[in-house]
Specification:
Structural class: mainly alpha
Strand order of the largest sheet: 1-2
Radius of gyration: 17 Å
Order of helices and strands: HEHHEHH
Distance between the termini: 35 Å
Helix content: 40-55%
Strand content: 5-15%
Largest sheet: 2 strands, parallel
Number of domains: 2
Shape: flat
Number of helices: 5
Length: about 110
């Protein structure tokens, strides 16, 4: 998440500078362990999470200031999978319909 947080905040500021009000900035995450770390902070940290404390604390700070909200989004629903993984069968057909914005495609 720390890879994209700067782009998300920049986009939020860009819209605000254009005169639009951004009421809710939602980050979708598929990993429930990561969501728990970002919501609970240090209480969810252990020895193996020590190396990313700085990025984690920054994201926790953004959540506390209500600049971003983190929500779970299942892996099967993520459209990025279509562009990054070879999909076959029903999964491919479902994603193709979403991308083409056409429910009549078989």
């Amino acid at each position: 998440m720390d890879d994209v947080i700067a782009k998300i905040l920049w986009t939020k500021k860009f819209f605000e500078w254009q005169g639009f009000e951004v009421k809710l900035n939602i980050l979708y995450q598929e990993n429930t362990s990561t969501i728990k770390l970002e919501m609970n902070g240090r209480t969810s940290c252990g020895k193996s999470t020590r190396h990313f404390n700085i990025q984690l604390l920054y994201i926790i700070n953004l959540v506390e200031r209500k600049e971003v909200k983190i929500e779970y989004y299942p892996t099967d629903e993520m459209m990025a999978d279509f562009f990054t993984k070879p999909l076959v069968g029903n999964k491919f057909g479902k994603e193709k319909k979403k991308i083409m914005n056409n429910t009549s495609i078989q």
